[in-house]
Amino acid sequence: MSHTAAADRTFLQKLLDAVEVIGNRVPHPAVIFLIMSGIVIVLSALFHALGVSVAYQVIDPVTHQAHESTATVNSLLSVDGIRFIITSVVRNFLGFAPVGVILVAMVGVGLAEEAGLINALIRKVVIVTPKRAITFVIVLLGVLSSIASDAGYLVLIPLGCAGFLSLGRHPIAGLAAAFAGVSAVFGVNLLITPVDAVLTEITNDAAHLIDPSHTIYLTANLFYAAVSTVLMSWVCAVVTERVVEPRLGPYTGDAVAEPAEQTSPEEARGLRAALWGFLAVVAAILALSLPAGAPLRSPETGALIGNSPLMNSLIPLIMLLFLVTGFAYGRAAGTITSMTQAIAAISKTVSGLGGLLFLFLVISQFLAHFNYSNLATVAAVSLSDMIEHANLGTVPLLLVFILVTVVVNLIIPAAIAKWAILAPIFVPLFVKLHVPSEVVLAAYRTGDSPSNVITPLMAYFGMIVIFAQKYQKDAGIGTVVAMMLPYFAALTVAWTALMFVWYLLGLPFGV
């Protein structure tokens, strides 16, 4: 990585350099996950032999019912454990969500990229956006992408790299900014997201364990989430420009981007055609969504948000959007002249995913082994029980709860799964202390996302390393962790401060 001159480096830059060096000395990510699987297997056998278990209440995200559950550590060296390891390999891989997401989405994105639409769009955005605002805009778009589930990882992070490169800035800094927006500020948005519905239901179910009349609505955190979206995007932009870019220094790699000049007549013609294609797809989606009984509405409730065909088909719809706009652009700009050429462009993109798919194969096995062992659940419940019995005051308890969420997120990055475990423990506790459930949910959002960008257990972390290697061949886990640590630290401090200012001033968190 190209860094600033050694003599001019600050203590923070030297510290992050040390983290990067140490992190990159570890083996290939696939080897790391193989080693971690081995460690999980050994620990599962050890704690199973010791009879370790925890009892807790858990909320079923589907039925919304609370029930008593006991988690015991399952040994992966038992007869059943060995059988699971051997027989579940294919099932684990096919059930690993990022596999299907990236294969489906990249069909459309690949065509759009090969046709030249992505580059043209980047240049257009760079031209119309003030240079001082481009970092903030990329981060903000990353935060807003949570409305489309995981699409931001596949679309906006590569766009962040290319956008920075086109401005002569370090593409890895663009990756960091986009990654921070997509992942580290995932828990909030200016709009209501599908995850909001599930988190709200789990919160209500947990509160009903103490008070059946205590209910919050889907918009309970709307005001807090909207302000958090803007302020945390600004924090990420400041970290990018004041910490990450100065540490990276000028980019000296092999990747070359066209300068952000005015679009050519061919590009302008292609962008107009892509716009018409975009509008056609949007019109088709609206026609399939808005009428009563439309195919993309929930057949049970008629809802569009939540567990509906529309929300469940976002990735295929995004693929279709990029396919149509990419092909329309290519035909109008002359970069795609036939269907055969379009298919060849898609094939080229998919063929380049081999290394990432192998990494996903290994990661999926580790996560399956980790989940089977119940080690994460036992650790999370044990930590939460310890905090519950510490007899802290309301404000200190809120702070501890945020920090517990940050720590637990390192081993259970999934927001819904983690809340299903933590909510039945902490929501009733805070309700007893007369702290409204919307405050508890806001505190959970505050601690849930920032550590996403530094935990290799996050499903897309390996893919981020692959993206980084496109611009820096020797990039590894240490490169990404060192680069994202400032975001984690800044967001944790700033977001926690915002949470307590909001709470202590008595501001409404939503409606």
Report what the structure shows:
- This protein has 511 residues and is mainly alpha-helical.
- It has 22 helices and 2 strands.
- The chain has helices spanning 11-25, 29-49, 79-87, 89-94, 97-115, 117-128, 134-144, 151-166, 171-184, 194-207, 222-248, 265-287, 309-312, 314-333, 339-351, 354-373, 375-388, 394-409, 415-432, 437-448, 461-471, 477-504, and strands spanning 53-59, 66-72.
- A two-stranded antiparallel sheet has the order 1-2.
- The mean pLDDT is 84.
List keywords for this structure.
two-stranded antiparallel sheet; 2 strands; 511 residues; mainly alpha; globular
How do the helices and strands follow one another from N- to C-terminus? Answer: HHEEHHHHHHHHHHHHHHHHHHHH
How many strand units?
A: 2
Q: Return the structural class.
A: mainly alpha
Overall morphology: globular
State the helix count: 22
Give the uncertain stretches in residue-range form.
none
